[in-house]
Fold this sequence. Notes:
By secondary structure, the protein is an alpha/beta fold. Among the domains are: 3-215, 2-enoyl-CoA Hydratase, Chain A, domain 1, CATH 3.90.226.10; 435-546, Butyryl-CoA Dehydrogenase, subunit A, domain 2 (Beta Barrel), CATH 2.40.110.10; 552-693, Butyryl-CoA Dehydrogenase, subunit A, domain 3 (Up-down Bundle).
Amino acid sequence: MSKEFIRISVRNGLGKLTLNSNDHNTLSGETIFEIGRKFEELESNPDVKVVVITGDPKSLFSAGADVGEIHSLLKAGNKQNAREVMELLQAVLVRIEKSTKPTIAAINGYCFGGGLELALACQYRVAKADASASIGLPEIGLGIIPGLGGTQRLPRLVGAERAVKILFGGMKALVSPGNAKIIGLVDRVIEGDFGAGVKSFCQEIIAGQVQPLPKADTLQLDESCFSSETFQAVVSGKASTAVNAMKDVLRAALGLPLAEALKQEQSIFIRQAFSPDGIEGVSAYLENKRKPKFSQVEGESTAEQTSAAKETNVQSGGLTEEYEMLRQTLREFGANEIRPKVDDMEREGNIFPDIIGKMAELGLFGVPFADTYGGAGLGKTGYCIMMEELCRVHGSVAVLVGASTGLTGGSIALYGTEAQKQKYLRAIAEGKAIGAFALTEAEAGSDVANIMSIAEKRGDKWVINGTKQFISNGDIADVVVVFAKTDRDLGANGISAFIVEKGYPGFKTTKVEHKMGIRASRTTSMEFTDMEVLEENVLGQLGQGFKIAMNALNYGRLSLAAGCIGASKRAFELAYAHASQRSQMGKKLIEFEVIQFYFARMRSDIFLMESSVYPVAAMADRGEDIRLESAIVKLTASEMSGRVIDTALQIHGGVGYMDEYEISRLYRDARINPIFEGTNEIQQLLIFKEIFKSGGKI
Ligand SMILES: Cc1cc2nc3c(=O)[nH]c(=O)nc-3n(C[C@H](O)[C@H](O)[C@H](O)COP(=O)(O)OP(=O)(O)OC[C@H]3O[C@@H](n4cnc5c(N)ncnc54)[C@H](O)[C@@H]3O)c2cc1C
C-alpha cells in the first residue's frame, strides 16, 4: 500500500476521498489511518461542504479488512497490542461519524466487512445499481465477528432483527443495492452515471433536501430471534464459538450508548479472534480459502428450519436470504402499516395515499424489475412472495399492486422500448406512477378478441375511441396500457397496445363499481373520445396486442395464485385462533375431531398451493414459457383457497358471517379469484389447448 493511493479532490463544494489502495481496497491499519488523515484534511477545508468516500471507479468500494494483517496480529499473540490497534482504528471511524460536515459513502462495488463498517460510520450511503455493489459482513464465516462497529451500527440503522440475519448469515446474507434500499441500509440506489448521481445527491444534501436515515441510540434485543428455526438455518455450518461471540456482543452492547457498545464489541472481537476458531478461520481464508476446521459447527446435520425460512425454502428451492428479507419486510409493513387501516380503507373504498407512498418508499412497486429500471431485481419469485404477503393482510392492496406492477409494468417490461421502459416502467417501479391495464369491455370479457375500441392512424398520431369496463386502479392510474383494434378484420391479430397517460385529452374515467369484495380496490370504466396517442407510445408491434395481454396475464395469474396462498394462510390462522378459544359442549372446538380434520385438509391445500406456485415462479425466472403452468396454478390455487377460506369461515360459525370478523372479508375477497385475470373456465380452455397441442402426451 502506498499512501498516495488514497486520493482526495475538492470541486464545487464536494470533497472526495477515493480508495484505490490495491485490487480489493482492503483496509489495513495503515490504510485506515491514512483515510483518517485525508478525511481531516477535507473536513477542515472551508471549500468542502460534503465529504464523499468512494472506491476508484475501476475498482470496488472495499472488500473489507486486510485479513493478512489480522493474521499477523493473531500470530504475534499479543492481545494488548491488538487491542490498542483496534482502538485507534475505531477512533478513525468515530471521527468520521462525528464529522461536522455531512459524509457520504458512495458504494460503487463490493462493500464487505471493514468496508461496510466504514460506510456505516458515514451519515449517508448511496449504492450503484449494480449486482457488484452487494453489501455484507462475512466475518462469521472466518470464525470471527466484526470489530469496527459493524455489530453495533448496523442494528441501530436497520433494526436488530434484520441485522441478525446479515451478521450471522455472512456471505450467505449479502444484500443487493435494491434490497439495501428496502431495508434502510442505503439512502439511495443510483442508476446510470454513478458519479453524476452522487453529485446530485450531494447537492440535495447541501440544499437541505435530504435527511439521514434515523439511527436508534440503543436497541432492545428480542432473544426469540436466536431460538427461531430461521436463525438455526442461517447459522448452520458456522463456528459455534463465533455464533456465541456474536450473540454475546449483541446481548451485551445493543442496550448501551454507542461509545460504550463499541468498547464491548472490541473486547469480544479480541476474545474471539484469538480463540482457536478465530485463528483457524483466518488462516484457512489465507490458505487459498480452504474450508476451516472449526472446533464445533452449528447444526451440522440437525438444523431444522423455521416455518418462515421453510416457507421461503419450499418456495424458492432454498434460494437466498434476500427473499427471506423481503418477506420479513412485508410482514412488518403489513402488520404495522396496512392492517390497522384495513377497515377504514374498506369502508371508504380506496387504498390510502400514505400507504401507497410508504410502499413506494420501500421499493415494493419495483420488486420484480431490474435495477436498471428502478426495480429491486427480485424477479417473479420475489413478486410472488410479495403478493402472498400482501394478500395475507389485505386483498385490495394486492390488487392495486397486481394491476400496476404486474399487468401494466409487466407489459411494458416485456414489450416496451428502452425509452418507454425508462419513462413509464421506471415511474411504476418507483411508485411514482400507478398503472392500469385496460382490456375488458362490455361485450368482450372472456372473448378478448372481440374488443370494439378502435385506434385509427391520423397523420402521425393514433386516435383511440372506445369504452372499457371493470378496470382496476381505473381512476387512480397515471399510466394505462390500453388495448384497441388497429385492424377490425384481423380478430385477435388486429389488436394493438398503447401506453396512455391519464391527462391525455379525450380520456376520462366513468362509473366506479361497488363490489362484493376487494372493496378498497378501485374498479372503474374508462372512455376514450378521439384520444390522441403518439406513435412512440405504441407498445410492442402493431397487431401484437393480444399476445402482449396474454403474456402479461400469464404472470398475473401466477401472482394471483401466490396471493391465494397468503389469504389462505391468514384464514387458517384466524380459524385456529378461534377454534382454540371457543368452547361448545364443554370442549374447545379444536378438540373435536371433525374440526381437526378440517385443519388437516386446509393445511394440505396450502401445502399443495405452495408446492406448485413457487416452482412455476422459478420457471418464469429462468425465462421458461409458463402459459400452461400459470393457467394450472391460477385454476387450482383459486379453487383451493376458496375451499380453505370457506372452511375457515365455517369453523368460525355465526360470527364468521359478521362484517366485523376478518374472515368474512377474506371470504368476500376470495370470490374474485376464479373470475378475473381470465375466468377459471377460460383457464381450463387454455390448459386443454396445451394438452391438445402436445397430442395428449404427459
Ligand atoms: C373486480 C374486477 C376487477 C377487474 N380488473 C380488470 C382490469 O384491471 N383490467 C381488465 O381488462 N379487466 C378487468 N376485469 C375484468 C375481468 O377480467 C373479466 O370480468 C373476466 O375476464 C370475465 O369476463 P366477463 O366478466 O365479461 O365474463 P364473461 O366473459 O361474460 O363470462 C361469463 C361466464 O361465462 C363463461 N364463459 C365465457 N366464455 C366461455 C367459453 N368460451 N367457454 C366456457 N365458458 C365461458 C365465463 O367463464 C363465465 O363463467 C376485472 C373484473 C373484476 C370483476
